Amino acid sequence: MDNYTAFFLALILVIVAAVDGVFFDWALTLEIGRLLVQLSDWLAFWRNI
User: Fold this and answer.
1) d(CA 32, CA 13)
2) DSSP type of residue 25
């Protein structure tokens, strides 16, 4: 991945976060956080088997 691609992806993430914060009251960010916590719990379960 070159610098242009990394900058473009970072810019997209910042724009999505800004739109989510301004228009949707951080609902998308919270939902993604909840899904990551569920994924972490699921992975921890399979690690202990």
Assistant:
1) 13
2) T
How does residue 1 score in pLDDT terms, banded at 50, 70 and 90? confident
Cβ pair 20, 28 in contact under 8 A: yes
Radius of gyration of the chain measured on its C-alpha atoms: 15
Interval 21-47: pLDDT, tens? 999 999 999 999 999 999 999 999 888
The beta strands (E) that lie in 1-49 are given as none
| pTM tops 0.85, yes or no | no
Kindly tell me the number of DSSP H helices and DSSP E strands found in the chain.
2, 0
